[in-house]
Amino acid sequence: MLMLIDVYCMFNRARGTELISPDDLLHACRLFTELNFALKVREFSSGVLAIQGPTHDDKRMTQTILQIIDSRGPITDIQLSGLLSISIIVAAEHLHSAENAGALCRDTTPEATRFYKNLFVFV
């Protein structure tokens, strides 16, 4: 999964000249589903736009996060981004989505926000 702004920067950097506008890229990416591509544009609740493949849907990502928490203990967005090689913003969005689904709960301290498995759901 890549944030749309990152895709825009990489695409225009690769072209060098005759750059495309952000609107043109967004319009082209929104055609993915009509063209039966495996990728799609996803808008998170915070408004962040990303290009998402089939392996990054909420259900699979929640399962992956729960497996990581089971093996490593509570996790922050920074730790998750390093483990999954995704940006911190996307990692935070996945953690919040899993929390909204009831799979995770959080502990916010001045140091960091750590996400735990919601044991009340899995009892």
Automatic annotation (TrEMBL):
It is found in: Cytoplasm; Endosome. Belongs to the VPS36 family. It comes from the Eukaryota. The lineage of its organism: Eukaryota, Sar, Rhizaria, Endomyxa, Phytomyxea. One of its GO terms (biological process) is protein transport to vacuole involved in ubiquitin-dependent protein catabolic process via the multivesicular body sorting pathway. GO terms for molecular function: phosphatidylinositol-3-phosphate binding; ubiquitin binding. This is Vacuolar protein-sorting-associated protein 36. It comes from Spongospora subterranea. The keyword Protein transport applies. Component of the endosomal sorting complex required for transport II (ESCRT-II).
